[in-house]
Specification:
Elements lengths: L16 H10 L1 E4 L4 H18 L4 E3 L8 E5 L6 H6 L2 H6 L5 E8 L2 E7 L3 H16 L8 E4 L5 E5 L29 H12 L4 E3 L15 H4 L9 H16 L3 E6 L3 H4 L11 H17 L5 E4 L16 H12 L5 E5 L9 H9 L10 E6 L22 E7 L15 H9 L21 E5 L15 H12 L5 H13 L3 H23 L27 H4 L5 E2 L16 H8 L9 H4 L2 E2 L10 H24 L7 H33 L13
Parallel strand pairs: 1-2, 1-3, 3-5, 7-8, 7-14, 8-9, 9-10, 10-11, 11-12, 12-13, 13-14
Antiparallel strand pairs: 4-5, 4-6, 15-16
Helix pairs in contact: 2-5, 10-11, 14-15, 15-16, 16-20, 16-21, 20-21
The structure holds beta-D-glucopyranuronic acid.
Beta-D-glucopyranuronic acid binds next to loops.
Pfam family, one: Glyco_hydro_67M
Keywords: Carbohydrate metabolism, Glycosidase, Hydrolase, Polysaccharide degradation, Xylan degradation
Family: Belongs to the glycosyl hydrolase 67 family.
Length: about 700
């Protein structure tokens, strides 16, 4: 194919002991074949082992007897070889998707066993084994037990089905060609392989904006192209093939739906969630969907937000809205993912979410998950965590993270999000000592994680080769949020660029430097956000700086900067549990990296190290650009160490990033100076005279 393999490269292991040991245990593979998913296992083994061992593996339907060792993949129930190697009860007790990889012996022959009680577990276990080999780890003596932390590990595509475009996609057009379905592209399967290799188990195919924001009433040509149409019978029928393909890789298919669907797709004259015909319409629609796609995952809904209709249109609330859909899906085991990204009725967006959703705690139906972005604003380079987390104990929550780099350089800039997500996941929502970290909130049935932004048609899938790491890392964290950033980076780099220690060290160091640099040059590093240019058209930009557009977010005045989201101001800090509220409320104890998010401070207010607010902003803006230059130079040292195509691509993006980081630095520093009229101590920022 003419696109990249990402982290599934399967390059041949160089001649030597390691390859010998892999060959001894894995040239022969005995794989159960009860189901289609096991077809996926066999296919991946052919590809992965074939590539890494440098020879075609033999795949068996019974245990081979004339060999020194073999690989066995199957459930204990299907294969005696496996049953002998493991404790069957332990396997039966694994959570859905869990697996064991272990070594054993069968009739005097060494075996490497991958087992699970579910087919998806066998798929994941197979990919795990291949990952070990790609990282050149020994496998002759392993004992691995894995279970996913989050039951639902989803990708939210923001693909616009009939336009071919992707909202906030920075890697070309949508890979999904809905018009040509049920024809399947080779690329769908390779996408499913990438996702399954890191444990993703659900894909929402279309954008949450199921109607085109800002479309003029009566513009029928545009209306023809809106995503809500996927609920029409003619399109549902087209989805069946794609859903079956995903099913082979343990991935469930979901759709974003429009709350006004009873009127749009059906011909009802209302979509009022409390109307019995509406109730019936949704129930029938759900029946129809499940007839076609028996393992359908459910509906994702953006309601009452940015022009999408919702229960407010009918004098109802989010509970009424989510529950009517939930009742329709319930008989089929489906789930509603109801987004909490609702704002507009409060002067400060940060305040609204908790105000709107916390009072509804306990009222959502069992099969509703309220999907909450990590921060209260909108995927900014750094935000505090949403105060909803930890404070809606009676509601299943989902954590929404943005894989795509909408506000972090849009895949022209390198920005590795894993360290940011780790900060979110490790955050203690209850510092009184109950130990409830954000990551602990998404482990029960009904909870999970949703990563926004799927890859596009670009050869490298993500626009920037290094952005592949965000897709990889998101999925790995959804599987196991205890993984450290360093562990995830190490896995990804080795599989993606090979195991040469110098290359691994250099790429790792570059990856880890990117996010802090982006924060510095695009926010000044002490809690400002929303500094980007928006433009007048919806969805226009967010790439360039445009701080003048958002005085309401930055709280900038001639006297100072920052926003009093505290007890003196709009009380946002008080939405957190007491200990957190107190910490944020006092500029002395508020973490410096969020200081101006919570406090409006005079330009010459001194921070801990004695520097003023304005000088710190200047310094950080400059430091961010210098760091980016350093990262670019580091990357240049890799020339000849990795393949030229990927090296050059990233090198060129880094050149652009350095240039554009400078644009941010200059615009923001001038903007601060225009208001503060305090010159930079180092004379870098142009002054009036
Ligand atoms: C904003 C994006 C917009 C999305 C919206 C959302 O700019 O494209 O539609 O979030 O999450 O950040 O619904």
């Amino acid at each position: 194919p003419d696109y990249d393999d990402c982290w599934l490269r399967y390059d041949e292991v160089p001649d030597g002991d390691l390859r010998e040991s892999y060959r001894r245990l894995c040239t022969h593979a005995y794989v159960a074949e009860e189901s289609r998913e096991l077809g996926a296992v066999r296919e991946e083994l052919r590809r992965g082992l074939g590539g890494m061992l440098g020879r075609d593996p033999h795949l068996w339907q019974h245990p081979p007897r004339t060999v020194d060792g073999f690989l066995a993949v199957g459930t204990p129930g299907d294969m005696d070889v496996v049953a002998q190697a493991v404790d069957e009860d332990e396997i039966a007790d694994l959570d859905e998707g869990g697996y064991v990889i272990t070594t054993s012996e069968w009739e005097g022959i060494d075996t490497l066993v991958v087992t699970a009680s579910s087919d998806s577990g066998l798929v994941y276990g197979t990919f795990h084994l291949l990952r070990l080999m790609a990282a050149r780890e020994p496998v002759a003596d392993v004992d691995i037990v894995e279970e996913p932390a989050s039951p639902d590990r989803l990708i939210n595509h923001w693909d616009n089905p009939f336009r071919g475009s992707m909202e906030r996609g920075y890697a070309g057009q949508s890979i999904f060609d809905f018009e040509r379905l049920p024809d399947l592209r080779e690329r769908y399967r390779d996408y499913a392989r990438l996702l399954a290799s890191v444990g993703i188990n659900g894909v929402i195919l279309n954008n949450v904006n199921t109607q085109i924001p800002g479309r003029e009433e009566g513009n029928e040509a545009m209306e023809e192209l809106e995503g809500w149409r996927l609920l029409e019978t003619r399109y549902l029928e087209k989805l069946t093939g794609l859903a079956s393909l995903f099913r082979r890789y343990g991935i469930q298919t979901y759709l974003s739906v429009n709350f006004g669907a009873p009127e749009k797709v059906g011909d009802l004259d209302t979509s009022d969630p409390n109307d019995s015909e509406v109730e019936q319409w949704w129930a029938q629609k759900a029946d129809e969907v499940y007839d076609l796609i028996p393992d359908f995952g459910g509906f994702l809904v953006k309601a009452d937000s940015e022009g999408q209709p919702g229960p407010y249109n009918y004098d109802a609330d989010h509970v009424d809205g989510a529950n009517v859909l939930a009742r329709a899906l319930e008989p089929h085991g489906g789930r509603v993912w109801w987004r909490a990204f609702v704002y507009g009725s409060h002067k400060d967006r940060a305040v609204q979410q908790y105000d709107t959703f916390e009072p509804l705690d306990g009222e959502f139906h069992d099969n509703v998950t309220v999907q909450v972005k990590n921060g209260p604003i909108d995927f900014q380079p750094r935000e505090p965590i949403s105060p909803v987390f930890g404070q809606m104990p009676e509601t299943d929550l989902g954590l929404e993270l943005q894989i795509t780099g909408e506000y972090t350089g849009q895949h022209v800039h390198a920005c590795y999000h894993v360290p940011m997500w780790k900060e979110v996941l490790e955050f203690d929502t209850d510092p009184e000592g109950h130990g409830k970290r954000v990551k602990d909130l998404f482990t029960d049935e009904g909870t999970g994680m949703a990563g926004v932004g799927g890859p596009g048609e670009d050869r490298n899938w993500t626009g920037h080769y290094l952005a592949q790491a965000n897709l990889y890392g998101y999925a790995r964290l959804a599987w196991d949020p205890d993984l450290t950033t360093a562990e995830i980076t190490d896995e990804w780099v080795k599989q993606t660029f090979g195991t040469d220690p110098d290359v691994v060290e250099t790429v790792t160091e570059i990856m880890h430097g990117t996010w802090p640099a982006v924060i510095d040059y695009s926010t000044g590093g002490i809690g400002l956000m929303h500094m980007m240019y928006n433009g007048s058209a919806y969805l226009e930009n967010h790439y360039d700086p445009g701080p003048e557009e958002w005085p309401g977010y930055t709280g900038i005045t001639e006297d100072g900067i920052g926003k009093d989201r505290n007890s003196k101001g709009n009380g946002y800090a008080q939405q957190y549990p007491e200990a957190l509220a107190e910490m944020y409320d006092d500029p002395e104890s508020c973490p410096e990296e969020l200081l101006l998010f919570f406090h409006h401070l005079p330009w010459d207010h001194e921070l801990d190290d004695g520097r003023t607010v304005v000088q710190t902003l200047y310094d950080n803006l400059y430091a961010g650009v210098e760091e980016t230059q350093r990262l670019r130079d580091e990357w240049r040292t890799l020339e000849g160490e990795i393949d030229d195509e990927r090296w050059r691509h990233v090198a060129e993006r880094f050149d652009e990033q350095v240039e554009h980081a400078g644009v941010w630095r200059d615009r923001l520093s001038e903007y601060f100076y225009e208001h503060a009229e305090i010159p930079d101590e180092q004379g870098r920022v142009p002054t009036d005279d």
